[in-house]
Amino acid sequence: MEREFNDTGLCVSNRHYMVDTSKKIESIFRLIEKGKYFTINRPRQFGKTTTLSLLDKLLNEKDDYTALKITFEEINLNAYKEQEFIYELFMMILTRLEFLNLEKQTLFVEDHLGKITTFPAFSRFITKFIRHMMPDKFVVLMIDEVDKSSGNQLFLTFLGMLRNKYLQSSEGQDYTFHSVILAGVHDIKTLKAKLRPDDDRKYNSPWNIASDFNVDLSFSSHEIETMLNDYSHEKNISPDIRAIAQKLYYYTSGYPWLVSKLCKLIDENIITQRKNKNWLAADVEAGFRMIADKAYSATLFDSLIKNLENNNDLYELVFQIIINGRSLDFSIDDPVINLGHLYGILVNSERGRCQIHNRIFEQRIYAYMMSKVQRTKSGNVNEYGSPEFYNVSGLDIRLVLQRFQTFMKEHYSKKDAGFLEREGRLLFLSYLRPIINGRGFDFKEPNVSDERRMDIVITYENQRYVIELKIWHGPKYHQKGLKQLSAYLDTYQLKEGYLLIYDFNKNKDYKQEQIIFEDKHIFAVWV
């Protein structure tokens, strides 16, 4: 069977190109060796199921381990009563034992199937099973998709039972699973469970025995290289693997599904039209433009937007970061920041600030927020696609900024500073998008600094334009901003740049200025 890059479900080495995650698996195994109970809570499509599968294979190949991997993916726990829930657990364990060809253990479970109807009885069954059926084995229970039951009282009772058995076993008073691993999006240690008939929810911690799980499941640039090496060897090509891996990491920050998806787009869409099948760093950029396009649909992006739509506080926080350039301290104790982290939207930057996880997410959210404002607000912009914006050398950014300045002066000069600070930059982005739509591509460069600025990179007919959006804080900060823009232009080997400055003073001057700074020509416009 010809292998491919996988973007759906479980990754399997003989069917898919995979990153070598053996060091991660070894780190997790060391937790299991110590008999730890823990939760692998990571965002959707972050490799949790594949990780459990690799652990399952590793453990069951060892003489002294047996891994029982089950999942709550296909069962509706909310429909079950205690007896039915226990029966489902029995059936899942029974299925795994049969698959592992453990005949004696299978018969033991079958003999108790349907006879165990309460949790105390189930606890005694586990004791007998571990003590008499698996005396020479370390038995590891792994449960995937625990989010399917996180609000179910039966599941919490089950966790409480495992917790009690763990504590009693530690005292030499019971026999139980050597290690238990739960996998899902949410951290089971702080489950919010609906424990009453009304809507009153309270925190419950039936899993406070769990050890911290600090293994990084994202892919490093070096780890991505292992997958590209495997692919290149099989395809008999010799691309610049290091440069491509670094570019893949640049856009994805190692988010597993995004890495695989970009590779799949390059392999199955981008290089198919040319004779030379060697990948180029430019192919990664082309893949990024495809996946970041607002018309490109994927379940992960649907979930990303749904989480923002369903949480107003989270939407506002992300809006402030992406659109208004706010630099916010990352505090995991803040419920809103914690939620953003849980969903894979926010991460802690090296400077301790809230940062969008990766450039693809930032671009998708950026496009979504602009689309939303265009749909809900009248922009009074009637020059979309004006031929005057385009010339033989490409896009006339100078004219775009001049027209936007006129637009702001005519329609928003009487707005208060609070409105302009919140909406001003979004108005420009909404103004810009129809001008380049279908002709070019605009990319918002992430920026996590103390300066409230935004860098927009536009690609149009093989030309690149960099526009920095910045709030006016006086001449001193203006010079600092020019230096930042100059350095940023160097990364794209450009000598020309553009600066859109928002001045919230009532007596501001709507001026334009051509600035020569270092070796750069910068056109600045104040609005």
List key phrases describing it.
alpha/beta, Rossmann fold, six-stranded mixed β-sheet, four-stranded parallel β-sheet, 17 helices, elongated, P-loop_NTPase, AAA ATPase-like domain-containing protein
Would you mind describing this structure in some detail?
InterPro entries: P-loop_NTPase. The chain is α/β, with parallel strands linked by helices and 527 residues long. The chain has four domains: 22-203, Rossmann fold; 221-292; 297-376; 380-527, no CATH class. The chain is built from 17 helices and 16 strands. It has helices at residues 22-33, 48-60, 82-99, 103-112, 119-133, 153-170, 221-235, 241-252, 256-270, 281-292, 299-309, 312-322, 335-342, 359-376, 397-412, 417-436, 475-491, and strands at residues 38-41, 65-71, 138-144, 179-184, 192-193, 202-203, 346-348, 354-356, 390-391, 394-395, 440-445, 453-460, 463-471, 496-502, 512-517, 520-526. The strands form five sheets. Strands 11-12-13-14-16-15 form a six-stranded mixed sheet, sandwiched between helices. Helix 6 links the parallel strand 3 (138-144) and strand 4. Helix 3 (82-99) packs antiparallel against helix 4 (103-112), helix 7 packs across helix 8 and helix 9 (256-270) packs across helix 10. The longest helix has 20 residues, at 417-436. It is elongated. The model is unreliable at 193-203 and 381-385 (pLDDT under 50).
